[in-house]
Amino acid sequence: MKTLKFFLTVVIAVFACYYAQGQTSTVKDDLSKAQSLAQQGNTAEASKVYLEIMGNYPENRDAVQGWLMINMKRSPGGEEEAIKQLEELEKTYPENTGILFFKTFLQAEFNHLDDALKNAEKLTVMQPDDGVNWLMKGQILESMDRNDEALSALEKATSLSPDNADAWQIKAGILAKTNKLDEAISSYNKAIELAPGQPVFIYNRGCVYCRKGDKANALADLGKAISMNPQFKTYAPKDEDYKSLWEDEDFKKLVSQ
Question: How would you classify residue 198: left for phi > 0, otherwise alpha for psi between -120 and 50, otherwise beta?
Answer without folding.
Answer: beta
